[in-house]
Amino acid sequence: MAKLRKTLGGTDWPVCEALMRQIETQSTVTLSRWAVDHAAREYLPLCGEAPALTAAVEGCRKHLTGQLSLKELKPLLREASAAARDTEGAVEQAAARATATACAVIQTPTNALGYLFYGAAAAAYSKAGTEDASRWDDLAQAELEQALEELHAVSVPDEPNPAKINWNC
Question: For the chain, what is the domain count?
Fold first, then answer.
């Protein structure tokens, strides 16, 4: 059996470079809304029973509409992160990490790329299983390409307040 990785993808992949360039052009709010919606649709269903993750997604959506302060949201983000660490199973844990990391984009805009690496692993493991490593990179690539298309679709042209991004990679 191939050793499972927590994440799939890499910053040297052309699709990741394209994602990084697009992320740099968008506001933290746009990135957060996209990440939370994408993770809730694609990865949250793979987590199984995950009340802390569901609460974090709902909290982020309320925060983005002004119904919840960042101070009120932070405990939900911490609980989601802890729940992701405690999740069992390769698919479930990768999906939980993707969801928790996507929710934290509002605090850390670079998570807009990071959550996708966890999500790529969740998608690949759920589609190919945890035994067939030969397909993981292709499935991860497809997942990242889909995410890039979705980011382009929600991007604000000529965003006046792009997030301050320092990739550290």
Answer: 1
Which of these, 46, 48, 47, 107, lies nearest to 76 by C-alpha position? Answer: 107
Position 10 pLDDT exceeds 60: yes
Produce one character per residue of 36-72: b if its CB has 16 or more CB atoms within 10 Å, e if not: bbbbbebbbebbeebebbbbbbebbbebbeeebeeee
Distance (Å, whole) CA 106 – CA 104:
5
Q: Within a domain: residue 8?
A: no
Rounded mean pLDDT of 20-25? 98
> Is 79 contained in some domain?
yes
The residue range of the domain holding 58 is 14-154
pTM over 0.90: yes
